[in-house]
Amino acid sequence: MDANTLGIIAGILTSVAMLPQLIKVLKEKNVEDISWLMSAILITGLSLWVWFGILKEEWSIILSNGFAVLVNLVLLVCLFKFKK
Amino acid sequence: MDANTLGIIAGILTSVAMLPQLIKVLKEKNVEDISWLMSAILITGLSLWVWFGILKEEWSIILSNGFAVLVNLVLLVCLFKFKK
């Protein structure tokens, strides 16, 4: 496989990885075992990747990480909303 | 901030993000709310990033994603080990 195709597949996978976690949280409304610090660090890091993408004018980096930021922001809101 | 520094900080943050989750799991041994599918997709995606790094001969990509693969592999093992 060439590096570009590999990068696209890798980027899609790491971007959508948090989706099953978000769906599970929205369904079950249980968040006790999930670390909010993980979510917060991830949002900070992914946002910096978006900024990096803007500087480099790389749309694939902006879009994939921007999508992941959104998923993780909704997850972080749920972590506080469903906290017991 | 220049793009290279930004990329390094972003890479460190997204690589270590899962550490607080792993520490929480190792301490509390509760994993019911965590999605194993999230963990599995993440490991696949991160491994492809390592492969991408090898093709591009980019040590920063190999090391940061390699570290994240390790953390997520230990997490995935814990998810099955501590499952009730």
TrEMBL record, chains A, B:
Pfam families: PQ-loop. GO terms for molecular function: sugar transmembrane transporter activity. One of its GO terms (cellular component) is membrane. The keyword Membrane applies. It is found in: Membrane. Keywords: Membrane, Transmembrane, Transmembrane helix. The chain crosses the membrane at residues 6-23, 35-55, 61-80. Gene3D superfamilies: 1.20.1280.290. It is a multi-pass membrane protein. Its main location: membrane. This is MtN3 and saliva related transmembrane protein.
